[in-house]
Amino acid sequence: MTGRLDGTTAVVTGASSGIGNATARALAAEGARVALFARRRDKLEDLAREIGGHAEVHEVDVTDADAVREAIDSVARDHGGIDVLVNNAGYGTMDPASEADLSEWRTMVDVNLNGVLATTHAAVGHLSKAASGARGIADVVTVSSVAGRTVTGPGSNVYAATKHAVGAFSEALRQELAPQHVRVGLVEPGLVDTELTNTGRQNAPDASSASEMGVLEADDIADAIVYIVTRPPRTAINEVLVRPVEQTR
Ligand SMILES: NC(=O)c1ccc[n+]([C@@H]2O[C@H](COP(=O)([O-])OP(=O)(O)OC[C@H]3O[C@@H](n4cnc5c(N)ncnc54)[C@H](OP(=O)(O)O)[C@@H]3O)[C@@H](O)[C@H]2O)c1
């Protein structure tokens, strides 16, 4: 069977669980070689084994810009380039400002914003180079959130701030890279059942409280990402908002 991404190389950050795990599987099922980035090596190794020969593990903390650049450069060197970057790694807490721990706020900024900046900065030259090659196109897809479009409640303060920031960054990047045929897309999930929402961490976004309206599965978001990166080279899907059907905010 031929896949729509045969011969391509994709980097997925936050591939050790949730949306990143599902996205790596979905991209590999389309024929992409997938470079799996996250901190939990054991989870990445399990996933790489399940995917098979077309996956490789990179134990990387996205807040460490030097480590990110080293890993991105090694992927490009080993596989002749990078065609797809999925900026997915993320973290969230929902404490109101009067109770919040400043270190949690800093972690959100470091992972959700600075991590996206470090990874994109390291990959952008490789993506431009890939787009000028035979395939003629390359993609950056960043996983934002409904909270990147609207402030969903007082507790979403810093999480929403980081996601609004990556939205602004993505739009500027889109304007810069469009002439080079590097497409820039933003995916904005509503509530998805993942470790971020279902492990009962205090003041994390909570999928269980929303069970009556249903929640998305990680595969729903992976589908959107595969859709974006498999469009014909003339077509750029720049923004996709995906909510559970009854989610109103
Ligand atoms: N679940 C939702 O309802 C929802 C809704 C909207 C948007 N999102 C966004 O979707 C993305 C994925 O989240 P998820 O829901 O799939 O949650 P998840 O299952 O908790 O996955 C988060 C991923 O990010 C990685 N990560 C966290 N900090 C990292 C760091 N410093 N360096 C490298 N990797 C790091 C984690 O891997 P390690 O711990 O192994 O490093 C994990 O693979 C996030 O950007 C999140 O904001 C989620």
TrEMBL record:
<dbReference type="GO" id="GO:0016491">
    <property type="term" value="F:oxidoreductase activity"/>
</dbReference>
<feature type="domain" description="Ketoreductase">
    <location>
        <begin position="8"/>
        <end position="195"/>
    </location>
</feature>
<dbReference type="InterPro" id="IPR057326">
    <property type="entry name" value="KR_dom"/>
</dbReference>
<comment type="similarity">
    <text>Belongs to the short-chain dehydrogenases/reductases (SDR) family.</text>
</comment>
<dbReference type="InterPro" id="IPR020904">
    <property type="entry name" value="Sc_DH/Rdtase_CS"/>
</dbReference>
<dbReference type="InterPro" id="IPR036291">
    <property type="entry name" value="NAD(P)-bd_dom_sf"/>
</dbReference>
<keyword id="KW-0560">Oxidoreductase</keyword>
<dbReference type="Pfam" id="PF00106">
    <property type="entry name" value="adh_short"/>
</dbReference>
<protein>
    <submittedName>
        <fullName>SDR family oxidoreductase</fullName>
        <ecNumber>1.-.-.-</ecNumber>
    </submittedName>
</protein>
<dbReference type="InterPro" id="IPR002347">
    <property type="entry name" value="SDR_fam"/>
</dbReference>
